[in-house]
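Running co-folding for magnesium ion.
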Amino acid sequence: MTLTVDRLLIWDFDGTLAHRRGETGWSILLAEALDAEEPGHAHSGDTFRPHLRDGFPWHQPEVAHPELCEPEAWWASVRPVLSRAYEAAGYAPARALELADAARRLYVDPQVGWALFDDTLPALARLTEAGWTHAILSNHVPELRQIVAGLGLDEVVAFISCSAETGYEKPHAQAYASVLDALRPAEAWMVGDNVVADVLGAEELGIPAVLVRRPDPRAARYADTLAGVERLLGDAVVA
Ligand SMILES: [Mg+2]
């Protein structure tokens, strides 16, 4: 497929275009997986949060991980992280591994828990109308494409680059190159909710970026909503 791209918007996925039940985060997921597996459990995301601050591929974005570019290899690296968090909550090791697998099944099911933000489809449609092509660049799980398709986003997004397929996590320069080298746009902007991975990482490479939904003083451009992104892009084009 040859795609001629003039103006490209590179979108982060999680926390920018979509979210899981209003909360982005694996700690919430681990508590949710218990709802079916251990009815009556007393845990919340707070139980697991301290145990999930390390061990995922995106916690070391400076390290490439080509050895994890196959779904089972990727999950084999993350499974012990999830199971240790369950062990820390008091579950026996064998049960903790079962719960880790339940959390995986829950996370990759686009029908359960995932939702687009209300402004996502309208903003992307208007931006398409205005001549922008959309790509997703995400630090995510190997099943990102099925989640994106399940949310109906695959019809408006021309290209997806997922770190679990490329082996590079944002803000690694090669993560950005995975999109730019494939599409060779005349102009590109990055939009995302993570100031380090999405905004500072892109700008380091000369890609202008907009922080969305989670303000941070380190970002030069910020918008609460994707309509705000449209305004910033409009201004930039006029300028
Ligand atoms: Mg995000």
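Result summary
The two ends are 33 Å apart (CA to CA).
The first strand starts at residue 7 and ends at 11.
Job closed.
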